[in-house]
TrEMBL record:
It is a multi-pass membrane protein. It is found in: Membrane. This is Elongation of very long chain fatty acids protein. Belongs to the ELO family. Its EC number is 2.3.1.199. The gene is ELOVL5. It comes from the Eukaryota. Keywords: Fatty acid biosynthesis, Fatty acid metabolism, Lipid biosynthesis, Lipid metabolism, Membrane, Transferase, Transmembrane, Transmembrane helix.
């Protein structure tokens, strides 16, 4: 496996340039093979799982689903806040240019995990602490909305890199979405869109983390984390039967996802129009990927909501027409029975 990965590295370098050394040695990032194998296993389970479950009873998974969706809701919430909140040093100050460079030199960039919370086993960062940083890191460090390079904010960049590693890792956790569908025999939810989105995101973010792990990469992850707060809270609540009648916002989550893709295209296009040190090739790729998601999600929205509402309108129209006919028939029947009664009375008189 190592030889195979080593044979891929020259092609990656030729196509994408040198890797970002700040993530060297981080869990799952040194070699592409683990990410590729995880994706291959995921696709194999998608193919074989429904066949295996075909003759078996579905699993409820209710308790696990509540915990799983709650966990991903909290993870997404903390990532969103962490990605957009500021650090203590404003960009452009003397501290951010000189002292932060010294801090970066003193950091252990070879640590196998993003550096946070040394009290955890293996120096694994606390997701709660990390998630208090995508919004804060961007906001307080005056990240430029129009274009932000990957090495222009010193220590603040490392803060974003650490949070985005968790974002990458969360894409691996989200494979469980599909596995739960299979176990519960909800195969209608395993669509081309679902599999495409899950399988590609993990792989794309492996490359992002190795070449552009901060700077302009923050925006899409921040929006997606916010959308996932809404989405996983919905799924968590929907796994509780008594809550289902009160859940009304599923349609608006899909609308929010579409809005997220449009906003990401706009923000990415700003980096193309007003370029900085962020590589243009990545911006073009992101625009193309967002367009593919817009096409797939729009088709899903039309199939799920517009066609359903149209069929409901037709059903109501039929019910209304049938009701009218029934009323007419009822009136006619009553009138006929009245005539018969009159005839019977006449016969009695005779």
């Amino acid at each position: 496996m190592e030889n195979f990965d080593a044979s891929l590295s020259p092609y990656f370098r030729a196509l994408l340039g040198p890797r970002d050394t700040r993530v060297k040695g981080w869990f799952l990032l040194d070699n592409y093979i683990p990410t590729f194998i995880c994706t291959a296993i995921y696709l194999l389970v998608v193919w074989l799982g429904p066949k295996y479950m075909r003759t078996r009873q579905p699993f409820s998974c209710r308790g696990i689903l509540v915990v799983y969706n709650l966990g991903l809701t909290l993870l997404s919430l903390f990532m969103f806040y962490e990605d957009s909140a500021p650090a203590s040093v404003p960009l452009g100050s003397q501290e951010s240019t000189e002292d932060s460079a010294l801090k970066l030199q003193s950091r252990d960039l070879s640590a196998p995990w993003p550096a946070h919370c040394s009290w955890l086993p293996g120096n694994v960062p606390s997701s709660l602490h990390l998630h208090t940083q995508l919004v804060t890191g961007v906001w307080e460090n005056n990240y430029n909305f129009f274009c932000q390079g990957t090495r222009s904010a010193g220590e603040a960049d490392m803060k974003i890199v650490e949070v985005l590693w968790w974002y990458y890792f969360s894409k691996l956790i989200e494979f469980m979405d599909t596995f739960f569908f299979i176990l519960r025999k909800n195969n209608h939810q395993i669509t081309v869109l679902h599999v495409y989105h899950h399988a590609t995101m993990l792989n794309i973010w492996w490359f992002v983390m190795n070449w552009v792990p901060c700077g302009h990469s923050y925006f899409g992850a921040t929006l997606n984390s916010f959308i996932h707060v809404l989405m996983y809270s919905y799924y968590g609540l929907s796994s509780i039967p008594s809550m289902r009648p009160y859940l009304w916002w599923k349609k608006y989550i899909t609308q929010g996802q579409l809005l997220q893709f449009v906003l990401t295209i706009i923000q990415t296009s700003c980096g193309v129009i007003w370029p900085c040190t962020f590589p243009l090739g990545w911006l073009y790729f992101q625009i193309g990927y967002m367009i593919s998601l817009i096409a797939l999600f729009t088709n899903f929205y039309i199939q799920t909501y517009n066609k359903k509402s149209a069929s409901r309108r037709k059903e109501r129209l039929r019910e209304h027409q049938n009701g009218s006919v029934a009323a007419v028939n009822g009136h006619t029947t009553s009138f006929s029975s009245l005539e018969n009664n009159v005839k019977l009375r006449k016969q009695r008189k005779d």
